[in-house]
Amino acid sequence: MSNNFENNNRQVLNQWRRLLESYENANNNEGTNNDAVPYTMQDELMQSITQAAKTQFGADFTKVKNPMVYYPETGDVEVNGIVATLDDAKFQFRYKDSNGGCYVWTEPLNLNDNSLRIISVINGVFKNWKQELANAEDIKPMSMRNEEPQMPQGGNGNNMVPGDDI
């Protein structure tokens, strides 16, 4: 029984380490993961989540180089910011995270009615954001939209026959 307990604890700790590393990479002042494509304030999806988070729970995005990024290989989207109303706790929303996708990192936090309300609001904003992405026609950043498909080498596409893949 103790081996099962130790293995479960080890798995949980490893998951936490991976999440923390992911969060630290996303907030690294020298840039995010090389595969991540940042959204800009011209992106409606980023405008929507940053405004909702600021209004609903006092989020601050000024200390994060790229508050919202898209991962082309997985189609995942990630939002990172600071919860000013919880003593500058860090938060992260992950669209395709199998564990739910809403995380908060903080120093010891006094769980009182106010902090519990704020955490509940953060979770509500996350659920709305995730639903917005699920209903969006295209979740990619504007910088990735309308890119011309690559033509096969040596041609302009006119020599293709039905059934050829682009």
Layout of helices and strands, plus pairs?
Blueprint: H1 2-26, E1 37-38, H2 44-57, E2 59-60, E3 68-71, E4 76-83, E5 89-94, E6 102-105, H3 113-135
Antiparallel strand pairs: 1-3, 2-4, 3-4, 4-5, 5-6
Low confidence ranges: 26-32, 148-157
What is the ordering of alpha helices and beta strands?
HEHEEEEEH
User: Can you count the beta strands?
Assistant: 6
- The oligomeric status of these chains comes to single chain
- What is the radius of gyration? 20 Å
Total individual domains: 1
The fraction of residues in strands falls at 15-25%
Assign the structural class, choosing from mainly alpha, mainly beta, alpha/beta, alpha+beta, or little secondary structure: alpha+beta
Distance between the amino and carboxyl termini: 55 Å
Rounded mean pLDDT is: 81
The helix count comes to 3
What does this structure look like?
By secondary structure, the protein is an alpha+beta fold. The protein has one domain. It is 37% helix and 16% strand. It has three helices and six strands. The protein has helices at 2-26, 44-57, 113-135, and strands spanning 37-38, 59-60, 68-71, 76-83, 89-94, 102-105. Strands 1, 2, 3, 4, 5 and 6 form a six-stranded antiparallel beta sheet that branches. A hairpin with a 5-residue loop joins strand 4 (76-83) and strand 5 (89-94). Helix 2 (44-57) runs antiparallel to helix 3 (113-135). It starts with a helix and ends in a 31-residue tail after the last helix.
